[in-house]
Structures are given as structure tokens and as C-alpha cells.
Specification:
This protein is an all-beta fold. Helix content is 0%, strand content 46%. It has no helices and 8 strands. The protein has strands at 27-32, 38-43, 45-52, 55-60, 70-76, 84-91, 95-102, 112-118. The chain has a 4-stranded antiparallel β-sheet with strand order 2-1-8-5, with no helix packed on it. It has a 4-stranded antiparallel β-sheet with strand order 3-4-7-6, with no helix packed on it. Strand 3 and strand 4 form a beta hairpin. The radius of gyration is 17 Å and the shape is elongated. The mean pLDDT is 86.
């Protein structure tokens, strides 16, 4: 059997379908952070705040049910071979802080950052 549709909408016929209790990513963001955070593209993200060198706070449009959601992040520099790592500074149901560090474990602002979030929305 095939199911073929052009649009899936909520019961009111116009709103988008809300994903809850499913495994699809609930939020994601791609942002620059060398001269202050700038969202390049996102879904489910309301804002990004520069907390300090190497730390950004990502605020969600909708809260997760708890702080046990999954976050996967990458950060780096375009065209550079600089090594770095990412870590979690603070995780709550409404926001997430991502830290970026160089190989000496010093905070560093990267120009390319992306984070994807999975979990249950409140």
C-alpha cells in the first residue's frame, strides 16, 4: 500500500503537525559565533546568547519534558585544521549551553556550530 499526500496538517487544516513522542529531531540550529552568535538556519530555536568565550546558550521555542533530551553538537572553523572539542555546560528543559574548547582545553569561539536535539516536548 502507498500513502501519497501533498501536505500533512493539524486537525484545524492549516497548522503544521506538532511532533511529540516521536524520534524525529525536535530542534536543530546552525550558527556562527566568532563575532557574537548569529543563527544561520534553525528549527525549534528561539535565540542564541553568547555566555562567554567558547560558550553559547541555545534557547528552545518549546520546552522539553525534562533535561534528559539528547544533544549532538559539532563545532569548528571553515578551511582550518585547528582541533577542538565540544562539551555541555548546562542542560535544562528550556535551553542548552554548548562549550567549544581547543586541544589545550581553552574556550574558543568557532565560526561554524551545529546542534541537533532529540527528546519529548512538554
Amino acid at each position: 500500500s502507498d500513502i501519497r499526500v501533498d501536505t500533512i496538517s493539524a486537525a484545524d487544516g492549516t497548522s503544521p503537525v506538532t511532533l511529540t513522542k516521536q524520534s524525529a529531531a525536535k530542534a536543530w540550529v546552525y550558527y556562527y559565533n566568532q563575532l557574537g552568535p548569529a543563527i544561520m538556519d534553525s528549527s525549534g530555536i528561539s535565540s542564541i546568547t553568547d555566555i562567554g568565550v567558547g560558550t553559547s546558550q541555545v534557547d528552545f521555542t518549546s520546552s522539553f519534558t525534562s533535561d534528559t533530551y539528547s544533544a549532538t553538537g559539532l563545532a569548528g572553523f571553515s578551511g582550518a585544521s585547528t582541533a577542538f572539542c565540544t562539551d555541555i555546560a548546562i542542560r535544562v528543559s528550556t535551553s542548552f549551553q554548548m562549550g567549544t574548547r581547543n586541544v589545550s582545553n581553552t574556550g574558543i569561539d568557532c565560526n561554524r556550530n551545529s546542534v541537533t536535539f532529540h527528546g519529548d516536548l512538554a
